[in-house]
Specification:
The complex is a heterodimer of chains A (about 180) and B (about 130). With about 180 residues, chain A is of the alpha+beta class. Chain A has a single domain, classed as Histidine kinase-like ATPase, C-terminal domain (Heat Shock Protein 90), CATH 3.30.565. Chain A has six helices and six strands. Chain A has a six-stranded mixed sheet with strand order 3-4-2-1-5-6. Chain B is globular, with a radius of gyration of 16 Å. A five-stranded mixed sheet of chain B has the order 2-1-3-4-5. By secondary structure, chain B is an alpha+beta fold. In chain B, helix 3 packs across helix 4. Chain B has one domain (about 25-125): Glutaredoxin (3-Layer(aba) Sandwich). Chain B starts with 5 loop residues before the first helix and ends with a helix. The chains are: A alpha+beta (about 180), B alpha+beta (about 130). Chains A and B meet through helix 1, helix 4, helix 5 and helix 6 of A and helix 1, helix 2, helix 3 and strand 2 of B. The structure holds adenosine-5'-triphosphate, FE2/S2 (inorganic) cluster (FES) and magnesium ion. The site of magnesium ion (MG) has 5 residues of chain A, from helix 1.
Chain lengths: ~180, ~130
């Protein structure tokens, strides 16, 4: 169903929004042999029952998508982890928030492609709402060289005077492309 | 291209504002709402969003606001896109991939015509909003 890891990250991000989170952190890291991403939020969190439901591929409660009852986010992550020998960790405290972290072996053939991270950040930064968002992108080469950048929605939005119209989003895209460029070498 | 700083971004925005003011493209705004539910994403909503954002920017169509929303409850017609602009009826489109998104820009936004094969009936939307 999902074509790329960036789609999975976006789904986790949307889950955080749906959980009423006001502060969301997303990280996407690469090392020579692992891909690692995490989404942390201060949304409503899940209790034990909620976690069990979230792990169940048929656990979507049916009100959200009238046409289907299959939630895709977490079960898909689990499945990908199983296929590739990766792992997924979920920490959630009701009323406090949730942190979901996934680590995959970078070279595994069944690992979906990363996808377009510039577009992922655009999607996350311009999703409507008052939430705050911090992004951390990092790549550590085998020789120890580190490339990284951080994006803070509040700072970006202040610099651009809002993230509403396509002119500001166009500039934002150029900004993000300049950040992402060293990673494509 | 070197990494841009926030300062550069701020300056570019200031310059852009001046250019836009001189362009004076009036103030009737166009709203495009892209449904980014999971089945929409799987069916190409992301690519459609990308086309709307990109085309509006490169063609200097000021006053276009592109919004994402979660699931619109229409799995079988995802990706769905709603267009609201003056002089045209509010329109919901279904099955909008990148190619259809481009058609919507050319025909609906710029040409004032509906992209007929993709218009989705309104009653369905009203039921789903309740
Ligand atoms: N960050 C979170 N905070 C609180 N609850 C969460 C969070 N992430 C997931 N959940 C719970 O787990 C359920 C399953 O999530 P999942 O993403 O798999 O499906 P969904 O969001 O319901 O549907 P879909 O992702 O297909 O639109 C959610 O409905 C929600 O109740
Ligand atoms: S994403 Fe929910 S019906 Fe399409
Ligand atoms: Mg979800």
């Amino acid at each position: 169903m999902h074509a790329a890891l960036s789609d999975v990250v976006f789904d986790l991000f949307q889950n955080s929004i749906e959980a009423g989170a006001m502060n969301i952190g997303v990280s996407f890291w690469e090392t020579a042999d692992e891909i690692h991403f995490s989404v942390t939020d201060d949304g409503r969190g899940m209790d034990f029952e909620g976690l069990k439901r979230a792990e169940d591929p048929f656990g979507s409660d049916g009100t959200k998508h009238p046409g289907r009852r299959v939630g895709l986010g977490i079960p898909f992550l689990r499945q990908t982890a199983e296929q590739t020998g990766g792992r997924v960790e979920i920490d959630s405290v009701p009323g406090k928030g949730t942190r979901i972290e996934a680590v995959f072996p970078a070279a595994h053939l069944d690992l979906p492609p990363e996808g377009n991270l510039v577009l992922l950040w655009l999607q996350c930064l311009t999703f409507g709402g008052d939430y705050q968002l911090k992004i951390h992108r990092m790549c550590r080469e085998s020789d120890g060289r580190v490339e990284e950048y951080r994006i803070d929605k509040a700072e970006i939005s202040e610099a651009l005077g809002g993230l509403e119209d396509t002119n500001t989003v166009g500039l934002l895209r150029e900004f993000l492309e300049s950040m992402e460029e060293p990673f494509n070498k | 291209m070197a990494k841009m700083t926030l300062e550069t971004l701020r300056k570019l925005r200031e310059e852009q504002k001046e250019v836009i003011e001189r362009r004076d493209s009036g103030d009737k705004s166009i709203h495009i709402i892209v449904g980014m539910g999971t089945c929409g994403i799987a069916a190409g909503a992301k690519e459609a969003l990308n086309v709307f954002l990109g085309e509006a920017y490169t063609r200097k169509m000021d006053n276009v606001v592109v919004k994402q929303t979660g699931c619109m409850g229409l799995c079988y017609a995802e990706p769905t896109v709603e267009v609201k602009m003056e002089g045209m009826p509010d329109t919901l489109y279904g099955n909008v991939d990148a190619a259809v998104a481009r058609k919507i820009v050319n025909l609906h936004l710029l040409g004032g015509k509906l992209v007929n094969d993709h218009v989705f009936d309104y009653p369905a939307r009203d039921i789903n909003k309740e």
